[in-house]
Amino acid sequence: MTTKKNTRRPYGDGSIYRDGRTNRWIAQVNVGYDGKTGRMIKRTRTCRTQKEARAALEALALKYANPGALKADHLTVKNWLSNWFEVYSRPQIREDTAASYLHMINYATEAIGNMPLGDVTPFALQLIINRQMQEHYRTAQYFRTVMRMAFKRAVKLKLIPDNPAMDLELPKRKPKKPFVRPTREDREALLAAQSPYYCWRYILLTEFFTGLRRGELLGLHWSDIDLAAGKLRVSHALANGIKKAGEDAPVYLAEPKTAKSKRELFIPAALCQELASYKAQQAALRLQSGSWEHPDLVFTGKNGHYINPAKFSSDFCNIRRKLGIKTTFHMLRHDMASRMKASGKFDFKDIQEQLGHSTIQITMDIYTHIDEEAKAAVSNWLDGDAGNIISLKKAR
Q: Are residues 298 and 233 in the same domain?
């Protein structure tokens, strides 16, 4: 009795041959068998020379030595990024962060969405940065971060051998826009400006005295404020969610940005008096309205609905430009830090606590601004201190 010989070629077996019709060299490797039909699955590369074909055969053998590579051939970049976002990313992050991730994913899917996952190269991702983000360092940096996470997971699942986003080059970083400190006249002009918000003046007053983030400010509840004790607790933040086509980005109430963002701040008597007066005005509006969506919210739109954070930023920008004011809303946080530092009464740790930064390094890197007065103070001190370093002789 003779044993039937197994005629199947081994997995990973490959060959090189010349195609007589095209006069091209073909590198071909067996990557497995179809479970339904039993047919051999092959992957090929067409080359100009026999030498190139040998190199291509080695590359194919190396690639398909990983069992997940065949699966990656059937996954497009769009498929993978969508799956990664929904399964591994979205359940772990805030809605506003998810919206930012999707924005980065859209850059990739628009450019290489139909490309097989296994074919993605660093070059393909680098082209996206070079063509679309050359003038936007922060966007490129964020894009690289999101792509690294997405493709790292693909490597972990053995879909691809290496992470193509690991060594992407970022565009040259432009100098930061100079901090423009608001003058007293700027503040008064902003407070008196016409705006779409009945609570405009009180939003700005609270910002001037606290340096809250935009979302923290718009997410304040009356239950967070003790006017008698002069205390304010940061425990909520308004944020924009994922925008759908043809619609405005939704608004939702979330946790503050980081654990350090949850904090208690002291507020001066002057602000407490202003807020007490405003609270009475708001109560009268609620009675007139008959329907108020969020009765415990400090700052609201008409009928007590949430103020859209993105729209508020846009409105603030339009108003301050009309007034000829260069200070952005976010710079009001910078101003709080600068005023605290200039007082000489507070150190970086105090400023970190006030602004709710997760690390003191953020406070030191972003919110310290040495203005002309500070530079002059350093210069004067150096003049006086020079005698401690060298013996100065009068010029003859």
A: yes
Are 58 and 92 members of one domain?
no
Identify which of 31-40, 84-93, 309-318 has the greatest average pLDDT.
309-318
Within a domain: 167: no
Identify the domain containing residue 197 by its residue range: 184-366
Q: What is the DSSP string of 317-364?
A: HHHHHHTT----TTHHHHHHHHHHHHHTS--HHHHHHHHT-SSHHHHH
> Which structure tokens are listed for 393?
């002789």
Whether 323 and 296 map to the same domain: the answer is: yes
Per-residue pLDDT reduced to its tens digit, 3-37: 444 444 444 567 888 888 888 999 888 766 655 66
Q: Dihedral, CA atoms, 258, 264, 266, 270, nearest 10 degrees?
A: 80
Is this model's pTM higher than 0.70 or not?
A: no
| pLDDT given at position 376 | 55
- The number of folded domains in the chain is 3
* E strand residue ranges, the chain: 14-19, 24-33, 40-47, 225-226, 231-234, 237-240, 251-254, 263-266
142 and 218 both lie in a single domain: no
